[in-house]
């Protein structure tokens, strides 16, 4: 007779087989690109391969007929564009990354059609499937955000900009700036065509790392390349990691993580839409910058799981939020919110090479959380409605001038409680220059030369109401 433990292990495949994936939200970084030190920044062939392979991995996981975690009702071979929502900023690198990813998700399907007059027409490019990528417009004339090293200003969130700038006055920063002076000067011969002795400091840690990192990938020869030992390259990465994480998140000043807060609202909105549409809209994909990963990691407690969540994610990294259920799912039976859970997964690099791994969120012990628990935890830091965003950011002009007028004419409250006792973010439209650029556009904080130069730009979107049967709005 089997012991209880062995009996449970023998039943695990059956238990897993009963699970149904109802939908997924994917947030994805672009693939390998040229250095930001030399505009215009473009996606490289390597980057194209990375995102394409990532798309193929997600196809094998969610889309194909024999997918390991087939999404309920999702078309397998010929895409139904109504089932997908794909967004990326008006940015060459991110837009092209999204397109490359989608080619892997839904590869070409050769189709031949015969017209009424007998003419036979074959689809071009081997049956390449055209999948729209919704472009997120920018308020700045510099739409190509990957050309800019300092993008916190893109959020349009005044208090977030101030918070990030405060890092440059902190004791931690000043000590690191002083202690690394000799290290940075030691590599000046490698980068002196781009940086001077004055700009080659920890203040520009990310820009320096980016230049060296891209060079080591693509340049067969590098001036004074013998100085770039493995230890030196590792230290450049660690300094850039420390620099960028401190600009993207601070536990005592949550507004610094505005990117993660607005991303959280987008995640809840899109997953909520999947539930309320009964998986008619099961797949949401957004492409954006690494700082949004860092901000969300900090807010959701992931650094306590691993120090790896405090560093710059690799090219083509992605995180996925799966909606799953063990309840019966059919055309006539769809599970209630009480029977739905959320699982978080992350791949540092293209998922084809570093497959998605499950991690627990919010300090929880379980990697799969009930939908109600997930939304309650996300609601603690999600920012999505216009009035709350303006209040937290300290903005009073532009869309926030309208928000102030609207708020004063109605209830001042922007949150309420559902019948289940959990707070919710009231649905609203952020406006054309606020939220989504925060989610998709924030990256590093330091301009290459001459100190800081802040440029504000962005675009907004609505946020889902967190609750069982409420549909969020999309722009």
UniProtKB/TrEMBL annotation:
GO molecular function, one term: phosphatase activity
The organism's place on the tree of life at top rank: Eukaryota
Entry annotated with the keyword 4Fe-4S: no
Signal sequence residues: 1-17
Transmembrane portions of the chain: 425-450
Keywords for the protein's UniProt record, in alphabetical order: Membrane, Signal, Transmembrane, Transmembrane helix
Database matches in PANTHER family: ACID PHOSPHATASE-RELATED, PHOSPHOGLYCERATE MUTASE-LIKE PROTEIN
Family: Belongs to the histidine acid phosphatase family.
The protein's name in its UniProt record: Phosphoglycerate mutase-like protein
